[in-house]
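ARCHIVE RECORD
Type: protein–small molecule complex
Small molecule: protoporphyrin IX containing FE
Source of inputs: curated submission
Record status: active
Notes field left blank by submitter.
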Amino acid sequence: MASVTSGRVGSGAGYGGAAIPGGDRLAWYFLRVSGVLLVVLAGGHLFITHYLNVPADTTFDFVANRWANPLWRTFDWLLLITALWHGILGLRYSVTDYVRPAFWRVIGHSTIYVVGLIFTAMGTITIFTFDEEVARRNEGPLAGAFWIADVLGWSLFAFAIVTYLAVPALMLWVMRSLRAGGPPIYAGDPGQYAWVLHRATGIGVLFFLLVHIIDIMLIGLGRDVYDESVEFYGNLFLIPMEIALVGAVVYHTLNGLRIILIDFWEMGTRRERQLFWGALVGSVLLTIPSAIIIFAAEL
Ligand code: HEM
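STRUCTURE (tokenized, with ligand):
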């Protein structure tokens, strides 16, 4: 496991990442500093779009009103850069863990950095070149390209179908394993379940973020194309995915703060189990209000 936290507990690597060599230490610190920044940036964004409003409300007018204020454009750009590069550097752990041959590992790392640069450019151009008047008149070259919005919408449907099949399959597997007297998934302790959930939610949120950057890019093409893509968010079939997204961001955030407490606070290591249960219960309690608001708005 290239992820330092799970490897550190019991390895005696000391607090605050001091024992991590070179570039890895820089990535280690970046993940923690950007994580704390994302509590405000991503937490604030999620609160506005999944508590104060619902995703189907984030229409052309909603975004245009927001981006009329340069402070919101700056906020959204900081969110873009911080979440994207936090996720890309986080994904690097998985490439290091699962891609063994050195040649392919270099290819894997280079590919995710190139993807990061491309999406940085796409998001930055979208945020800083958005011209409300031109987009509202639907006169841009791709203003009639509704197929782009449909491809995005149906890819979310496809992702939802896979998820809706995978979750009951996983639960069946857990029940069978428990009935056979075995561990739920593998003989890990709560700390390792916390790590698996952290990785799964981090990568899941990163995937959603990439689709979201493409989706927001449509606003530059024209009001009608963009609003066509937003309409998918109001579809009842996708509502559980929107709630799962809230749950994933909230769990990853609370467990991310747990990891930082373990890394920099002596008591954190001693309390890591309680902190994990706290993160789990906190995720459920913080997700329920958003679920109620979204269902109430869409039903
Ligand atoms: C909202 C956008 C976010 C995305 C897309 C994201 C994505 C990721 C990914 C993919 C990883 C790597 C997981 C692994 O393989 O071990 C990661 C790690 C991490 N994340 Fe996030 N994250 C986000 C927000 C946050 C927030 C709000 C925090 C709060 C503190 C946070 C704290 C952390 C920490 C501390 C790690 C390092 C874990 C380790 O070294 O084992 N993340 N993140």
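CURATOR ANNOTATION: The first helix runs from residue 4 to 8.
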